[in-house]
């Protein structure tokens, strides 16, 4: 049964590495002038990989239960303490997840900065400029009462 757990950890590690690669592509897209075309396939792939990771985590928890360990991090720590191969793969997985988490956090900050910039640009475009006599409004009509 530990071989099945080890196989799940290897697959989980590969999936986290793939996820980190997609996050790197997302970083490039978010720093591009116009990321609109690049982001939809990235988001689609991220969503797919998150589903795979959820399935693998559930499989890992079931395998831990079959081995008599609790689910989650504490169970993995216990399982790792009883098998050097599991411990090595668990360490690799944790390091990969930490790298992915850092890139994801950085991407979140890039998104926040871009959204802030867009909000300020919209606010600058929406400045109320006093209308002058004879100028038409946004509806294409000359207002009957003009503010000066």
Automatic annotation (TrEMBL):
SUPFAM superfamilies: FlgN-like. The keyword Cell cycle does not apply. Keywords: Bacterial flagellum biogenesis. It comes from the Bacteria. The keyword DNA damage does not apply. Pfam families: FlgN. Required for the efficient initiation of filament assembly. Belongs to the FlgN family. This is FlgN family protein. The lineage of its organism: Bacteria, Pseudomonadati, Pseudomonadota, Betaproteobacteria, Burkholderiales.
């Amino acid at each position: 049964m530990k071989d099945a757990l080890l196989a799940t950890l290897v697959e989980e590690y590969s999936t986290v590495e793939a996820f980190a690669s997609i996050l790197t592509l997302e970083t490039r897209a978010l720093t591009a002038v116009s990321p609109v075309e690049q982001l939809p396939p990235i988001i689609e792939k991220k969503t797919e990989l998150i589903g795979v990771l959820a399935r693998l985590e559930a499989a890992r928890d079931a395998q831990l239960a079959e081995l008599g360990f609790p689910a989650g991090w504490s169970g993995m720590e216990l399982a790792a303490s009883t098998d050097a191969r599991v411990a090595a793969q668990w360490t690799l997985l944790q390091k990969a997840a930490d790298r992915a988490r850092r890139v994801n956090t950085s991407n979140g900050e890039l998104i926040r900065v871009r959204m802030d910039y867009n909000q300020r640009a919209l606010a600058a475009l929406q400045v109320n400029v006093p209308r002058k006599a004879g100028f038409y409004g946004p509806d294409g009509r000359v207002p009957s009462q003009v503010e000066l």
